């Protein structure tokens, strides 16, 4: 009798489990996803693009700002902006799957985690992490083949960039600014720091602790970057002049040579999605055109 | 004897401020050889990087640190004097928060920072500071007498409320978020070239004016009736000191954001060495405040170099425990008096 009961129970338990997939997200949490989610709320602009790229755009019921690529993403209902998605609005869309991100959304993630809806947190640490995210979404939605073909296409592009890189000593010193006052940089250990490295830039924050460290003006001046990338808004055309007016900056190589780039498409670089390889190639091309050893340290 | 000892203490405080300034010019997250620093200051030829680091980063920042420290310490002395409250301090009383709120409004509204050649932030900050001070004063006086702990409590509440409004403004205006958050933690990097010159001018004028009120402050120490019997026009003096403390705080906050506890630590440290006489206490507190902010900023630049800690974080780490000690001592005195 008890044997029979055990057998019945184990069938009851395993049958639904078989239609579920286990994925491990960037928090290291194993999440069980019911058979191919149909109502997805995406709080990660990168994941929104990945979902579209894998032909899963119609599964998204709502997304957070920014969602502007592809065109169809613009028409998605919103659940607040990237930094402040609204908990109630998310749940009002009755999602069966939520994709969130780390950093600014960390608190919300903890709140969502205790709820009934399966949720993954995607917070890639670099290009490899983005590939991991693509594989995860492919696995969760049963699109493993198209995910690996997307990954392969991106990897080819990254490999082509890597093949064209100059030797380490000839790579331009780069200061990638997140905020100007007080100066906050893209840290070498951060996601975007990985991109700078892959594109052939020598980040001046190498060895500095923190993903987005607040750093000394004095440190920037003495590191003498040959390229300054501005991720915050400003007038691209006058960026070098404006920068030169900051106390102490007039002698910095990037300012003297006018290599203060405020015109890069940050969506291609900072959004961990399918277009990243494109952004990487564009950045590498810009780095390549910087004459090597413009000024010795 | 007393006079001789306190003169020696004044000299020692001045020496400490000078040493702090020296360290702050010779040390930093990048290595500039001592010889190059000296040459840069004397105007002799040095490599461009070293020259700019010394003359455009370290020197202005040291001057800003000295000014802000002097302003906040003097504001602390004045507040403690006319409120007759040892725990009064611009940051704890919410005066700094009022100033910061006004500054944030100006920043978010996109009002140009310089109108007709005049830098507007100090004026905005002053208005915010005085509004907050009035609010705290009225709140604390609701039951007649001005109680020491009620005043601080009112200050903390007003400060928390105003900070929440600042956070609200910061989160609503996404692109100014970091800028406003940086104001909340203190930043001595001058906003524009040459800002340190007029900050120094304001500081000298403000502290000198406070010093000129030293006799009246001394009289107020004895109590308002005694001060009146000594010929002090109490209400007018209190009003002057009220506005003065807001002005000093406003200027400090408008150039450096919120730097807490300096107005508490520096005056009490100076009082320990020099006694309560404001004629000596004010110069002493000015020097102690200057030294404290310069050293806090230096620590913020060097300890986690090349990353940077906001100067307000460092002063709060020192000042928080200091405040608790004062509070406990005050509580003990009060309970002692009751017995």
- The level-1 CATH class of chain B: Mainly Alpha
Total strand segments of chain A: 13
Radius of gyration of chain A: 22 Å
Strand fraction of chain A equals: 15-25%
The order of strands across the largest sheet of chain B is: 1-2
Number of helical segments with 4 or more residues of chain A: 12
In the CATH scheme, the class of the largest domain in chain A would be: Alpha Beta
Give the overall shape of chain B: globular
The appropriate CATH architecture of chain B is Orthogonal Bundle
Q: CATH superfamily name of chain B?
A: ABC transporter involved in vitamin B12 uptake, BtuC
* Oligomerization: heterodimer
Describe the structure.
The complex is a heterodimer of chains A (about 300) and B (about 350). By secondary structure, chain A is an alpha/beta fold. Chain A is built from twelve helices and 13 strands. In chain A, the strands form three sheets. In chain A, strands 6-5-4-3-7-8 form a six-stranded mixed β-sheet, sandwiched between helices. In chain A, strands 9, 10, 11, 12 and 13 form a five-stranded mixed β-sheet that branches. In chain A, α5 (about 125-140) runs antiparallel to α6 (about 145-165) and α6 (about 145-165) packs parallel to α12 (about 275-290). The N and C termini of chain A lie far apart (about 80 Å). Chain B has about 350 residues and is mostly helical. Chain B has a single domain, classed as ABC transporter involved in vitamin B12 uptake, BtuC, CATH 1.10.3470.10. In chain B, α8 (about 195-210) runs antiparallel to α11. The chains are: A alpha/beta (about 300), B mainly alpha (about 350). The interface between A and B is medium-sized, with 31 and 33 residues.
Characteristics:
heterodimer; A: 297 residues; alpha/beta; Rossmann fold; 6-stranded mixed sheet; 5-stranded mixed sheet; 12 helices; 40% helix; B: 339 residues; mainly alpha; ABC transporter involved in vitamin B12 uptake, BtuC; two-stranded antiparallel ribbon; 14 helices; 2 strands; globular
């Amino acid at each position: 009798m008890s044997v029979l009961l055990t057998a019945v129970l184990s069938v009851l338990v395993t049958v639904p489990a078989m239609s579920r997939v286990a994925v491990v997200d960037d928090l290291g949490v194993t999440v069980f996803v019911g058979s191919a989610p149909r109502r997805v709320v995406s709080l990660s602009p990168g994941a929104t693009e990945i979902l579209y790229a894998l032909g899963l755009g119609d599964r998204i019921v709502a997304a957070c700002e920014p969602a502007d690529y592809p065109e169809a993403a613009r028409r998605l209902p919103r659940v607040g902006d990237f930094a402040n998605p609204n908990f109630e609005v998310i749940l009002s869309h009755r999602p069966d799957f939520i994709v969130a991100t780390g950093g600014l959304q960390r608190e919300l993630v903890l709140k969502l985690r205790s709820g009934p809806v399966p949720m993954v947190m995607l917070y890639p640490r670099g290009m490899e992490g983005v590939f991991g995210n693509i594989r995860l979404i492919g696995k969760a939605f049963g699109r493993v083949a198209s995910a690996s073909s997307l990954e392969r296409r991106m990897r080819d592009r990254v490999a082509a960039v890597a093949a064209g890189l100059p030797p380490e000593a000839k790579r331009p010193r780069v200061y990638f600014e997140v905020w100007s006052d007080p100066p906050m940089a893209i840290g070498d250990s951060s996601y975007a720091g990985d991109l700078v490295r892959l594109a052939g830039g020598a980040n001046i924050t190498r060895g500095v602790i923190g993903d987005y460290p607040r750093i000394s003006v004095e440190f920037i001046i003495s590191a003498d970057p040959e390229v300054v990338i501005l991720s915050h808004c400003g007038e691209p055309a006058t960026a070098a002049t404006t920068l030169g007016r900051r106390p102490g900056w007039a002698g910095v190589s990037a300012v003297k040579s006018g290599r203060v780039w405020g015109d890069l498409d940050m969506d291609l670089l900072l959004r961990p999605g399918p277009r990243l390889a494109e952004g990487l190639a564009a950045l590498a091309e810009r780095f390549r055109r910087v004459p090597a050893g413009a000024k010795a340290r | 004897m007393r006079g001789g000892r306190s003169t020696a203490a004044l000299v020692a405080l001045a020496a400490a401020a000078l040493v702090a300034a020296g360290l702050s010019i010779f040390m930093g997250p990048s290595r500039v050889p001592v010889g190059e620093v000296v040459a840069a200051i004397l105007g002799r030829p040095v490599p461009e990087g070293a020259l700019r680091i010394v003359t455009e980063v370290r020197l202005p920042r040291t001057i800003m640190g000295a000014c802000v420290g002097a302003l906040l310490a003097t504001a602390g002395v004045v507040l403690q004097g006319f409120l007759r409250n040892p725990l009064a301090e611009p940051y704890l009383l919410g005066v700094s928060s009022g100033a910061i709120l006004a500054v944030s409004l100006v920043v978010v509204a996109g009002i140009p920072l310089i109108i007709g050649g005049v830098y507007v932030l100090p004026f905005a900050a002053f208005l915010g500071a005085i509004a907050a001070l009035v609010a705290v004063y009225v709140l604390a006086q609701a039951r007649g007498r001005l109680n020491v702990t009620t005043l601080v409590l009112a200050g903390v509440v007003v400060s928390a409320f105003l900070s929440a409004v600042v956070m609200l403004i910061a989160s609503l205006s996404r692109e100014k978020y970091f800028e406003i958050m940086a104001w909340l933690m203190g930043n001595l990097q001058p906003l524009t070239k040459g800002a340190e010159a007029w900050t120094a001018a304001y500081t000298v004028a403000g502290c000198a004016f406070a010093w000129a009120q030293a006799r009246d402050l001394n009289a107020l120490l004895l109590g308002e009736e005694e001060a009146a019997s000594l010929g002090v026009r109490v209400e007018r003096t209190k009003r002057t000191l009220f506005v003065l403390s807001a002005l000093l705080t406003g200027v400090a906050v408008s150039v450096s954001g919120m730097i807490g506890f300096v107005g508490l630590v520096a005056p009490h440290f100076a009082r320990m060495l020099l006694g309560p006489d404001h004629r000596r206490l004010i110069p002493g507190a000015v020097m102690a405040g200057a030294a404290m902010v310069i050293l806090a900023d230096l620590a913020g630049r060097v300890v986690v170099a090349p990353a940077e800690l906001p100067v307000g974080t460092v002063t709060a780490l020192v000042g928080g425990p200091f405040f608790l000690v004062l509070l406990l001592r005050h509580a003990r005195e009060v309970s002692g008096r009751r017995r």
